Amino acid sequence: MFMVMNKQIEDIKEIRKMMEKSSKFTSINGLSLIIAGVFATIGGWYAKSLLNNQYESTDLILSLFITALVILVLAVGVISFFAWRKAKKNNQSLLNSVTRRAAYNLLVPLVVGGLFSLLLLLRGDMALVASSTLIFYGLSLVNASKYTFSDIHILGICEVIIGLLAAVFLYNGILFWILGFGVCHIVFGTIMYIKYDLKKK
Amino acid sequence: MTNIIAKLNRTFDHQIRLGIMSILSVNESVDFNTMKELLELTDGNLASHLRALENAEYVQVTKQFIGRKPNTQYQMTELGRNDFKEHLNALERLIKPNDPAEKNDNESNNKVQITKKVTLLKYFVK
């Protein structure tokens, strides 16, 4: 009787494991989110100092844009590198159907948001850029979160709320930027690092 | 008790087959190599279990070429989905605590938890 029960429990564990493993991308490392958050905070402070020194000119917009782009590349680079390492350690390939689906769902709103924010920037409409980047980034995370840890869903919701607040309190864009891209990532990175990475060691 | 066990599907009486059905229940279609990687199996082992499920008409096989490479896609059939769900139901009934006097027992609390998990799993296998 007990033997039977144990086999059934093992079966259920296997079913659960396979359903999750085949439909969720679990190679995101909490530590990489923290590092990305630190980059964003530093970039934010740098942008703030740029703003304090000059007032709206094409040069300023260009240097802010380049700062944002550098931070984005660095953050994506760190997160992908850590994910690649974690996947390799677990003997999984990083490019499978789950990651492809997750990436697609992340990129659709993200690219639209990026282009939209770029258009705002080109029109010299600086006020709403922080808000639109945060909102679209948050929606991308919400959209892609069904393929990964549920924490990413909550992170996305937080980003959207901060983005909306940035639209209410205009002209504090950089502060909300630091809050959304910096502080949020550091907080959620820490939570995810403790929850998933520390536990496994 | 034996009655419930009899309802467990013999075709699924192997963890690898359960694994295959679980993967197919949450993915529209999965190719051979992805399946191999997920289940950490050798080609031959996976192929023999897939063939058993194919013979039971639980999975549908589509062979195609991507460039010059052969690519085999597996999909769950309606019958497979139904019978897998039945199997999950049977598992659930088997571990459901049916004696209320036992309820405070630690072990049966554990069973309640697992039963909840099975119910959750069934939600995915619509």
Short description:
The complex is a heterodimer of chains A (201) and B (126). By secondary structure, chain A is mostly helical. Chain A has helices at residues 2-23, 30-53, 58-89, 97-122, 129-144, 150-168, 173-200.
List the defining traits of the structure above:
heterodimer; A: 201 residues; 7 helices; B: alpha+beta; Arc Repressor Mutant, subunit A; 3 strands
Reading the helices and strands of chain B in chain order gives: HHEHHEEHH
Overall structural domain count of chain B:
1
Report on the biggest sheet of chain A.
none
Task: Please compute the radius of gyration of chain B using only Cα atoms.
Answer: 17 Å
For the record, the count of structural domains of chain A works out to 1
What is the H/E order of chain A? HHHHHHH
What does the model show?
The complex is a heterodimer of chains A (201) and B (126). Chain A is mainly α and 201 residues long. Chain A has one domain (31-200). In chain A, 83% of the residues lie in helices and 0% in strands. Chain A has helices at 2-23, 30-53, 58-89, 97-122, 129-144, 150-168, 173-200. Chain A is elongated and about 70 Å long. The two termini of chain A are 35 Å apart. With 126 residues, chain B is of the alpha+beta class. Chain B has a single domain (2-124), classed as Arc Repressor Mutant, subunit A, CATH 1.10.10.10. In chain B, 60% of the residues lie in helices and 14% in strands. Chain B contains six helices and three strands; from the N terminus they run H-H-E-H-H-E-E-H-H. Chain B has helices at residues 2-7, 15-26, 32-39, 43-55, 78-95, 106-124, and strands spanning 30-31, 59-66, 69-76. Chain B has a three-stranded antiparallel beta sheet with strand order 1-3-2. In chain B, helix 5 packs antiparallel against helix 6. The longest helix of chain B has 19 residues, at 106-124. Chain B is elongated. Chain B starts with a helix and ends with a helix. In chain B, 28% of the residues are buried. Classes of the chains: A mainly alpha (201), B alpha+beta (126). Chain A binds chain B through residues 1, 4-5, 8-12, 14-19, 21-23, 91-93, 96-97, and chain B through 1, 5, 15, 18-19, 21-23, 25-27, 30-31, 34, 37-40, 88, 91, 94-95, 114, 117-118, 121, 124.
